[in-house]
Design brief:
The protein is 27% helix and 33% strand. It is of the alpha+beta class. The chain folds into two domains: 234 residues, Antithrombin, subunit I, domain 2 (Antithrombin, Chain I, domain 2, 2-Layer Sandwich); 122 residues, Alpha-1-antitrypsin, domain 1 (Roll). The two termini are 23 Å apart.
Length: 410
Amino acid sequence: MKTKTNAILLCLVLAFAGCSKNVPPVPVPDDIVMTTKSLQLVKADNAFTFNLLNAIPVTQGKNVMVSPLSISLALSMTLNGADGSTKTDMINALGLSDLSVDEINQVYLDLITALKKADPNVVMNVANSIWIKKDFPVLEPFVATNQKYYDARVDRLDFNAAALNTINGWVNEKTNAKIPKILDEISAEEVMFLINAIYFNGKWQIQFEKSQTQNGSFMLATGGLVTVPLMKIKEKFGYSEQAGFEALKMPYGRGKFGMVILLPDIGKTPDQIMQQMSSSAWETLKTSLDSPIKVDVWMPRFKFNWESDLKQILSSLGMAVAFDRNEANFTKINSGGHLFITKVKHKTFIDVNEEGTEAAAATSVGIGFTSAGPGGPEFHAIRPFLFLITEEDTGAILFAGKVENPLLEN
């Protein structure tokens, strides 16, 4: 089936707070300096973002959002247990063939440490965990590596209803209750879950005035119109006109995080624009947004969640063997083998309003055991558009999505 899709996500955060005479100013952290290996990983992650979005089946009229960072972290923890062609295929699917597994682990540790410190006024939390069925033997190096590089919480549980509540409770806590649960059930063959959770909360560097928000029309892909609350502002932002779309960048906090919005030209769709994107095209686009100009911006408030089992999508990207109960090789988790990935569950949440953006994501990798205008241009996002949230110094894309109907909460 022809697959395509969506989204681009954005870098946002806030940075700066007013200080009285008696309150010392918040220290501004140094810019993040990326190593060659770090730049390789971020470039690969960004390419994975666009491959992933284009592989999501077309869902016209539905909003979509993924966190490539969350997916990559959960899969990279799992990668520490893979060997043979399973390991090779997973590395290739993630676009990390130029790095060893040890380098991948170290660079992700460096990246997450940097992202957490990028902006003191933006909340950026990343958490990892591994949940193991009680009495199922797991090799110590696998556990130790994921604790060292991913700061993973490791717990052993009886895999029953209480375990389901414990695991979902952890996800709920780490996403600030934006994703109440990641698992609906634990099957009889599942012996482990590797889970990543991300929570982001950033205030716009220049906030919309709520008094300026007015109801207006938003054109759907079908040609119909819906009435939505449109936030309006005229300020200096990164702006550029590209082949088939306009691009806008709105910063959070001190400007290290921001949201990039890709608004297709009339007659074009977000999916068509997504097909134009690649890691090199993304780098070129980011450069074009470096010089802010005054722009008249209209943008709808939107809030939605999205979820999917990524098994078919990841298989189409080249890691089908990891899901094959007969061919998968995770002997670095348990030397006896017979382990495979049962599912990769991914859930996301986003709320964009006048103050800023709140977003969350959770990814669970299940492991099964088997015996066999004036003053400047106008940017009026009043039709379907793409968005991405990214961090400036690292270049990492944290979230990416497509808004087809701002009224839908999915």
